[in-house]
Design brief:
Length: about 375
Amino acid sequence: MSKLPHIGTSIFTVMSQMASTHNAINLSQGFPNFPVDERLTAILARLATENVHQYAPMAGYPPLLEKIARLMQQSYGRVVDPKTELLVTAGATEGIFATVQALVAAGEEVVLLDPSYDCYETPILLCNAIPIRVALDDDFAPNWDAIAAAVHAGTRMMIINTPHNPSGKTWTAGDFDRLEQLVARYPNLIILSDEVYEYITFEQQHRSVHHRPLLRDRCVSVSSFGKTFHITGWKVGYIVAGAALMDEIKKVHQFLVFSVNSVAQAALAAYLDVVDVTQLGSFYQGKRDFFRGLLKNCPLTLLPCEGTYFQVASYAGLSEESDLDFTKRLLIDYGVAAIPLSAFYADGKDARLIRFCFAKDDATLIEAARRLEKLV
């Protein structure tokens, strides 16, 4: 008997497979197609001949943990103990999975804000806990009245995501004020903050749980080197949490993957000495602006994008098709793959919105825009 009877092949896999079959430009799945920094590949090549090929310590390669602690202080002014408050994970997904499995018990409730990334629900279900869906507003901002109505003394966790996938929305200072009020009211509530796009924000700098001392002991944050350094296939991320929470998460992590790829960890430790993460936002802002400029003659309506490398567009003025049918027609007839936003909602809400990934080289974006201009 299946533990996940309603889970099938993800929409990301489906659209990528269709893109390959139909020779379409794949703007669906969130991975870059441009080269990795040559400094990083040179470091990796050098390390291939060194003694870094055996198990790393369970919590992470010590030099990398030290570098992450330094990055936390530089980025957020937060001092963390690399021995007790950091954990290197096999991608952000493993960090999320281990955190939920460690901290949520059977029958407890976890609040998710829809539309939400599909990896949040599965670990909740696998520990026989209960996902509670609360819709974001139409502009993808948190609806704090609805959140307050959903959270109660028995709510164990709330998962938040800023910058937000799929919409690109970022939280305001006021949103974090309301989150602090919620945490103060419910002492059993833990916040799992998915911040994998933390260095990809545009007009406004990223706001984080790390900026809020009142939240730090009640939060687990998730970060991704894959997103930050466009090396998604490396599957290396990290989580930050207070020592008491981290002790429990490590218990799951050690039996889930034990430790993360040793060569990748060593390479990232060395790379953090030479790379400037503060430049990433301006790099992707250039990509966003370039892509939006290319689409000025396209019949789609572009929504605001404050962070991430995703652009949401409305086709409501063009068609009454479902978003799934529209994306399939877009792929087959016009040769561009996108993701329907209904896939991010538990109830399949369809607002006739689709998501493009603009983390592509200029030639790819130019050709995609040329095809999208033909939309009817």
